[in-house]
């Protein structure tokens, strides 16, 4: 995946240090001004959800104060303004993910719903008994359970690309698993546990040559690395606004228009129809065919400001910044001899996700102790229980970085980990 700087023009980026001016960025995030247990909040849980800059918070409040009206339903000024804000974001998102056709952008609630839509709509019409669905061992439950449900219903067979000891996909095994029965390949671009950036171009290329449809889970990639759906040529891409500075409750499913056109609606109701009779109905054009009921148009309007914010910095710059943090964090965490660090430990193929297991302190205890120092990390199975089973551990601790984190945050994490060791 090309993660080079595409837009280093941003003045809040110092190319010599390859770092963003985090103190200036933090000023935009009111929550980062608060204290937790009397300490500065060190937020290292952005893989779960990101914090929101003022422009997003203000956009939401501005929308409700000045524009609010249901979309596509009325011809009055407010409804027209609300509808155009909603449709304008579709164009913006299409450009953000590489200049794809905006008719392929469907608004959902989150990545989970986007992936379920593919399984329930595309899957039910195209998958039959004996067909194979190829996933990986590192998938989030959102990219496992919809396919488990589909396989139970259709009799399809689930296969998984194994994960190697260094947290990367076993590509030799992938080529062996891919065969004429493989109807669909669905892979996360970046693992939410290992941080691994998977070689998705290669996977898509091979899958397409094999005649398989491809789905990318972009929940952890779209917020952090340049994710160009057009160049990748994926058939579907799913991601969530809340992980990329946007509001909760908005997800995106990008699908190639020619595939979306062949799919049956996922939900029925207002807004997705062309004509309804008592016992029959025909569907609206794509993408509206997949957007039944009143959508979350206010949050969509606020999401627009999140995209603007990310674009002002530049996704290439964000990747460079996180690469520096990754290199630093991996180096520091490897200094602990009682801590197992998972993932590639290589910033070239790892996003800013650091998952570890302390051989004496349970991840939940670790997280609680760190919280006393104002440090927010996550402990648990991270919705990747099969990966935990593979590593034979019940849970891990995970720190994850974003644009408002710097090396100082990693230093505070390390200091608090040392304190925890002394405590136990
Ligand atoms: N896939 C991955 C890789 C994720 O990290 C997440 C969120 N943790 C999801 C899917 C699900 O995202 P959401 O909860 O926004 O549906």
Our count of domains comes out at 2
Architecture of the largest domain, according to CATH? Answer: 3-Layer(aba) Sandwich
Radius of gyration: 22 Å
Tally of strands: 19
Which ligands are bound?
A: 4'-deoxy-4'-aminopyridoxal-5'-phosphate
**Whole-number average pLDDT?**
95
- Shape descriptor: globular
Q: Main β-sheet: number of strands, strand sense, barrel status?
A: 7 strands, mixed
Write out the CATH superfamily name of the largest domain. Answer: Type I PLP-dependent aspartate aminotransferase-like (Major domain)
Helix content: 25-40%
CATH topology annotation of the largest domain: Aspartate Aminotransferase, domain 2
Instruction: Give the C-level CATH assignment of the largest domain.
Output: Alpha Beta
Write the layout of secondary structure elements.
Blueprint: E1 13-14, E2 19-20, H1 22-27, E3 35-36, E4 39-40, E5 42-43, H2 54-66, H3 77-96, E6 105-108, H4 111-126, E7 132-136, H5 145-154, E8 157-161, H6 171-177, E9 182-188, H7 200-209, E10 213-217, H8 229-232, E11 236-240, E12 251-255, H9 257-262, E13 273-277, E14 280-283, H10 297-313, H11 315-334, E15 339-341, E16 353-358, H12 363-372, E17 375-376, E18 378-380, H13 385-391, E19 396-400, H14 407-423
Parallel strand pairs: 5-17, 7-8, 7-9, 9-10, 10-11
Antiparallel strand pairs: 1-2, 3-4, 6-12, 11-12, 13-14, 15-16, 16-19, 18-19
4'-deoxy-4'-aminopyridoxal-5'-phosphate binds at residues 47, 110-112, 140, 142-143, 188, 192, 217, 219-220, 240, 383.
